[in-house]
Amino acid sequence: MKALKLIFFADRFHLRKYGRLVTNDSYFAMENGPVASATRDIMGSNPYLDEQVVDYANSYITGKGYHLISKKIPDTNVFSESDLEAIGFAWNKFGHYDKFKLKDITHKYPEYISRKKELEHNSSAKMDFDEFFDDPKVNVDKCFELSDKDKKVRREYLKEIIYLESIWR
Question: Model's pTM, two decimal places?
C-alpha cells in the first residue's frame, strides 16, 4: 500500500508540473485511497496480465500479496528526468510515513474526496484527472504549486490529450 501511495504522489506532482502522469495509469478511489489500477495489478500479480508484463515485473520485485521486496536496482533509463524528479519528490516528501499515515493523507485530496459518496455503494470509483489540478482544502502538500492561470492551461492541455487519444483508438 505504501508503494501505491508514493506512486500517487509522484503522478500527482508530475501531472501538475508537466501535464502527464509518470505511470500513464488510470486511477480509482478505493477504501484505502487513490490506486493506480494497472500498477496495482502488476504488484498483485493479476492472473489476467500479459505474461511478458508479469515476467518483467517479477525480475524487479518479489513478495506475497502487497508485501513487496526489490530484487535488484531499478533501471532508471526507462524514466525521463522529469519522471525521476517526481519519484524523488514523492519519496523525499512522503517516504518517511507509514502506509496508514499515507492513506490518511491521500484521503484529503479533492480528487479522492469527490468520490467518497460513490464509495458508499461501490468498492471503487474512477477518478477524474482534471481534479488533480484542484488544491486540497486542508494543509497537505499540493504536490506542486500552480497559479490559476497554470491550472487553466494544464486542464486545457489534458482535455486535448484525452481527445486525441480517443481519436487514435
Answer: 0.92
